[in-house]
## 1
Amino acid sequence: MTELRSRRWFADEDKPGFVGRSWLKNQGLPDHVFDGRPVIGICNTWSELTPCNGHFRVLAEFVRRGVYEAGGLPLEFPAMSLGESLMRPTTMLYRNLASMEIEETIRGNPLDGVVLLTGCDKTTPACLMGAASVDLPTIVVNGGPMLNGKFRGRDIGSGTDVWRLSDDLRVGRISMEDYQDAESCMSRSDGHCMTMGTASTMACMVEALGLTLPGAAAIPAADSRRRRLAHLSGGRIVEMVREDLRMSQILTRPALENAIRVNAAVGGSTNFVVHLLAIAGRLDLPLELDDFDRLGSKMPLLVNLMPSGDYLMEDFFYAGGLPVVIRQLKDSLHMDAPTVNGGTLAENTANAENFNREVIADLDEPFQRGAGLSILRGNLCPDGAVIKPSAASPALQQHRGRAVVFEDIDDYHTRIDDPDLDVAPDSVLVLKQVGPRGFPGMPEVGNFNLPKKLLLQGVEDMVRISDGRMSGTAFGAVVLHVAPESALGGALALVRNGDEIELDVPARRLQLLVSDEELQRRRQVWQPRPVESLRGYSKLYVEHVEQADRGADFDFLRGGSGAEVVHSGH
Ligand code: FES
């Protein structure tokens, strides 16, 4: 074992060593814990403001047990928590900030290895981005999904059924009393959203990347096996430090390719794209937007979970979970990829068994063929846009319609339910100013509700286009992440009411059917909106955030800084 970096703090016999040891002793630590054992940071994104991570203090205790048992010293630290359900204007604005906090906390302290406690959507990429920038031995313990929602005899899914129920309420299909009753029926246990939303997508992503113990993604938060997993992960991270098995040895280009293919097979969220691009960027790994289409779009959909399907994460766990999917995809994956437990993907999934073919399909009878995310190009999105065909109405995937334009989210809210809104079922709804810079923060508004008057006619889906994101729990013919964004004068900024737009998902095309000359004329008179007077973090964000096709990370965070601390102030 190479010398532990924590020894630079605790082996010092002079004043800095005295300070490091003495102050920790005020926590009741005896002398012998400074004997050269691995020091493990437990990065805890617990917060009462992040209900999805509300059980993490308990989970951290189980990690701690495992670390002690394996002969390590656990030191838990809090990290900025990003709660999707409460935080405004959008947690995406703060993903990069949280990652920076985590990076600097890991590097600046006497840690030899790290356990990342992740759950609610952005807590996973923020933790991975921060930890990858330092590159110590790292293992992820995700918090697990909630139990299935149960409402009047049927299962309801986080998010996905919120969209359905809110449309039902708007057009009077259900009463306010029923709507409120559904609130407590939907979220009835610890854990994150139990659809294949962004949190579950991220959990599958980290398992496919090899950064969790096998089978971690789907274990419900309320199941005792979640706590066992935390305990075992605590033990394993100590061994990883002894083996010097660092994050960059697991998070490699083949691992990224595996994650993209697995994401397609589970029907994962479109948010996967911006987060994986940002994570890869921290290790300077090559990854392009088109890789998601090239590697993923031909993959079969094997998992029947909302929003693309019918079931929920608890069902996925009982059916066998992600190891079953990985095993079935073995001919498409790099099965020799190493993982945190020391085994390869092949070794970890060799005995995986499918217990429910309604939830996990066999490879020769998938729920859908060619189900991965599609990357669109065209004059409306020269740097790309994303659509999730498995969640979109098939009839709308080749569609031409007249644009109905909303200049920003306030304009949308003001006019969407106006009975005089000039809109038809075949219109294409366009929303501007919701990109990384324009909003700022690229919120999840891309799946915006349809006009009430069309809902009342029974219209269930329409083509919607924006430079924003969509909740992973949502569905619809929704084109997202248009780059360059409208706030930068991308072609989206030039769209006017009545313009024809053509979406052709099979051809990967999104075209504004306006002549180049006319677009040039419009571009010459286009004016950027005056930037609001921003200060502090928002100012930093707007000045440095990259476009969606680069992962919406900060331009100065590409590549890591490693674990070295150059100077000591002690
Ligand atoms: Fe936290 Fe959905 S709100 S995972």
## 2
Amino acid sequence: MMYSEKLMDYFKNPKFAREIKNPSAVAEEGNIKCGDIFKIFLKIKNNKIKDISYLTYGCIAAIAASESFCRIVKGKTIEEAKKVSYEDIKNDLGDVPAIKLHCTHMVIKTFKKAIENYENKN
Ligand code: FES
């Protein structure tokens, strides 16, 4: 399978693959078909994504997509971050092989769940 150079770089040099202590919200999602698990931590302040991180147990594309998403949304308002789509991740990564596109969808799904958890709490 051919991955873009940027995708491989995100996979090899992740900046957001960590846990956040005392997060504002957390969410976990799994994909039954491939068995990959996504976990996203959020730190929210003044309606902004002050910090975000992930622990993803999955394929190369799943990890690179998680990394890409975190880089895109850090510093954005909740409203702006909600508008980020799997296509934004795909464009950021250069390209994603068709059979790996669901990995990008999983990241968005996990993030939306974390935001939902946050909004239900506040
Ligand atoms: Fe399923 Fe990557 S192969 S999330």
